[in-house]
Amino acid sequence: MSRGTASGPKGKKKGATFTIDCSKPVEDKIMEVASLEKFLQERIKVGGKAGALGDSVTVTREKSKIVVTSDSNLSKRYLKYLTKKYLKKHNVRDWLRVIASNKDRNVYELRYFNIAENEGEEEE
Fold first, then answer.
1. b or e along 88-119 (b: 16 or more beta carbons within 10 Å of the residue's beta carbon)?
2. Is the dihedral of CA 19, 20, 24, 27 positive or negative?
3. What pLDDT was estimated at residue 8?
């Protein structure tokens, strides 16, 4: 029983484009988009080797957004993992989190934690 398989090689995904929106932290000058772009270029693994992107993966910067285009099977979750690793390395992981956008499923946003809710509870 087949479930309507698509023609073409099995196990290969089509190319995907993912976006990481860093507009809020960049406006507040907490982080640099160029350093995140460089970090991703050095750390993304293709064929088990970090930094060897070749023609299959491209990392580009558009103002305060980073666009990662992949011809091979690059998972969105892997990009989230690398972005969180970058935030931890630059000691801003305590204030920022990586969230998938509600509008578009291929977009991650860097947002602040909602600290205002907890301030009222701490004061006695």
1. eeeeeeeebebeeeeeeeebbbbeeeeeeeee
2. negative
3. 40
